[in-house]
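2024-03-11 09:14:02 INFO worker-7 job=invfold-0412 stage=load source=structure_tokens
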């Protein structure tokens, strides 16, 4: 979930606070369907959701029994996440911070989730590197993002090429993971008013090896 331009961090925070203040849930209250499919069989553990927005994915994981930290730049979005968690009888830990300043502890979590986390390239590279380092051996990263072809579809996501994710670049950025699933495809997405229609995506499930190689 990303602002429509590579704006300053202050502008990005204002953008998201405004979006998450709207009457409708920006991306709905149901978790991303790719996450639902891939996380359904994972054992409960510690989970970190990056750029989590209003908390739909974090709440889904909490309902599965995970201990979830939901990170986002927007305090408004994270307040919505807590409301959603309360309404569904689960609890979350929220962390309001800029990803540029967030470096999770190494080997501190069993699952990292990045759904529609679109960032300027240099920052994205750093965040992906830190995410891999944060996973414990055997832990997984689940990611879905818009591919460059999404600009021609206009059904959601950032309209600037820099913020879309080239699959070849992504492979390099996730070095250190065994890629159990890595694919690009077009699929129908129906996630609230801002993600709706046929979409070009890249999907990843990566596993950190149990032993260093």
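2024-03-11 09:14:09 INFO worker-7 stage=emit residues=213
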């Amino acid at each position: 979930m990303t602002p429509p331009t590579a704006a300053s961090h202050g502008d990005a925070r204002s953008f998201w606070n405004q979006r998450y203040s709207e009457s409708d849930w920006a991306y709905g209250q149901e978790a991303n369907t790719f996450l639902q499919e891939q996380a359904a069989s994972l054992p409960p553990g510690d989970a970190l959701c990056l750029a989590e927005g209003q908390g739909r994915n974090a709440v889904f994981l909490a309902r599965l029994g995970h201990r979830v930290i939901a990170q986002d730049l927007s305090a408004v979005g994270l307040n919505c996440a807590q409301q959603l968690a309360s309404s569904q009888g689960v609890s979350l830990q929220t962390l309001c911070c800029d990803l540029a300043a967030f470096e999770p502890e190494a080997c501190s979590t069993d699952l990292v989730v990045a759904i529609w986390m679109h960032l300027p390239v240099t920052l994205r590279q750093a965040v992906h590197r830190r995410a891999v380092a944060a996973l414990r051996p055997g832990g997984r990263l689940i990611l879905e993002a818009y591919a460059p072809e999404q600009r021609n579809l206009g059904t959601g996501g950032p309209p600037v090429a820099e913020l879309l994710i080239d699959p070849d670049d992504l492979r390099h950025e996730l070095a250190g993971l065994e890629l159990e699933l890595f694919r690009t495809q077009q699929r129908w997405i129906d996630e609230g008013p801002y993600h709706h229609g046929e979409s070009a995506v890249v999907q990843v499930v990566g596993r950190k090896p149990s032993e260093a190689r």
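2024-03-11 09:14:09 INFO worker-7 stage=report msg="Residues 121-134 form the longest helix (14 residues)."
2024-03-11 09:14:10 INFO worker-7 job finished
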